[in-house]
């Protein structure tokens, strides 16, 4: 009888010990797994493909101004949520989509078709038609957005602001394969 009680008490304590260890294990594992997966979660949270319009809005060999609404717009953003960018159509399915901001201190650059240059009004930064730095204080070329062509429209990944940290060159044409983008 007392042996039976002993077995029951032992198995009860064993069960409590296992349950306690399981709780502690889960409490440690959840934040560690969350930390390890955070880059993946962050990337997918900021993936926001937005259409800039039909392809025929962007004639081949030309650079046109386009704009889109910031996908993370808040009520207080008002007009500032409208974000411009420069679209250069290199060939039928090759584009470059430049951030409007100068790579020096962020002033909006303007495209001058006569000279085929982007110029920055703030400190005289100049860029070639392909976004490469030509002269002035910027230390690099213009930042570019990831783009893809889908159902006859040009889309950019507007959730990921182009920065030095994320200058991937992903180009997807109608969901088929990948090819390197210019610049
Ligand atoms: S912000 Fe463009 S050159 Fe300084």
TrEMBL record:
SUPFAM superfamilies, alphabetized: ISP domain
Name under which the protein is recorded: Rieske 2Fe-2S domain-containing protein
PROSITE patterns hit by this protein: RIESKE (PS51296)
PANTHER family: CYTOCHROME B-C1 COMPLEX SUBUNIT RIESKE, MITOCHONDRIAL
Domain (Rieske): residue spans on this chain: 89-156
Record's keyword terms, sorted: 2Fe-2S, Disulfide bond, Iron, Iron-sulfur, Membrane, Metal-binding, Transmembrane, Transmembrane helix
Organism: Alloacidobacterium dinghuense
CDD domains in the cross-refs: Rieske
């Amino acid at each position: 009888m007392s042996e039976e009680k002993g077995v029951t008490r032992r198995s009860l304590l064993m069960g409590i010990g296992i349950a306690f260890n399981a709780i502690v294990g889960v409490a440690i594992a959840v934040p560690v797994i969350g930390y390890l997966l955070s880059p993946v979660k962050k990337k997918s949270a900021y993936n926001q493909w937005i259409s800039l319009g039909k392809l025929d809005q962007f004639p081949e060999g030309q650079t046109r101004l386009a704009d889109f609404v910031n996908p993370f717009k808040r009520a207080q953003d008002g007009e500032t949520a409208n974000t411009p960018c420069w679209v250069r159509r290199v060939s039928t399915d090759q584009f470059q989509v430049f951030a409007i901001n100068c790579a020096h201190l962020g002033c909006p650059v303007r495209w001058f078709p006569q000279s085929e240059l982007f110029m920055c009004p703030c400190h005289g930064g100049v860029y070639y038609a392909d976004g490469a730095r030509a002269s002035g204080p910027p230390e690099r070329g213009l930042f570019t957005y990831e783009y893809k062509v889908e159902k006859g429209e040009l889309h950019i990944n507007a959730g990921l602001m182009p920065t030095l940290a994320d200058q991937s060159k992903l180009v997807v044409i109608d969901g088929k394969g990948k090819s390197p983008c210019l610049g």
